[in-house]
Amino acid sequence: MRISRSTAGTAFVGGAMILTLTALAYPSMLGVENAASGQDRIIANTQYGPLTEADRDFVVKVRAAGLWEQPLGQMIMERSKSPAMIEVAEHLLVGHGRLDAGCRKISTDLGITLPNEPSPQQQNFVATAEGSSGKEFESTAVTLMRIAHGGIFPTIAKIRATTRNSMVRELADTTNDTVLDHISVLEKTGLINHEQVSFQITSPPKLPQEQTTPPPPQQGAPVRVLEIPENLKDLQTVAPNPSYGAPQPTPSAG
């Protein structure tokens, strides 16, 4: 059965179609529980500035987003012929490829463990879109991603406002640009149910942590790389190619 723009809202309320801000959340950082002192606890002092639990979790959130949205972009590329949908796919593949390169650079320099698979909930999002076809597939895919991109803004803003780590700060800037770019191309499709987007972002259901936490990587497994297709490496988007590497200036003693 096809889901039209007028009925998509009903379908998205229940079951597998529920999408919340926790789709991008990674609260326990691969099994490492947050301390009672909160997310502002400094877990490492680095040449790029102190690293807090919130900083670390943000890097994993960005990585986890790419682990489900990049495959969905590939699926759109294979299934859709609409120029607007092809543009969505291209920007997803490029944007998340660039963000993923930043996450992998940061994880190496700051000692952050990254997941190789999306969370069970995120896997369910991909499966939900994969199980539809035609216009239903396109509407399902863009609405899921529009909710996700709109929901991550508060997290980006909070990290950008509070982090003292220059690498995490640059990732927040680039993520913000990328999210805005993706929202723009998603909205150009004309397939988004904006009422449902508003409902899911403002009234997200609470889900158990095991559904929203990506599984830890197998011991010794190489870090999965989200590659940018060769023919898209020069694609211009509003998201810049980040440098990720300027050390944090050391405060003078005087």
From TrEMBL:
Highest rank taxon of the organism: Bacteria
Region (Disordered): 204-223
InterPro entries in UniProt: DUF4142
Limits of the DUF4142 domain: 54-184
One Pfam family from the record: DUF4142
Protein name (record): DUF4142 domain-containing protein
Lineage: Bacteria, Bacillati, Actinomycetota, Actinomycetes, Kitasatosporales
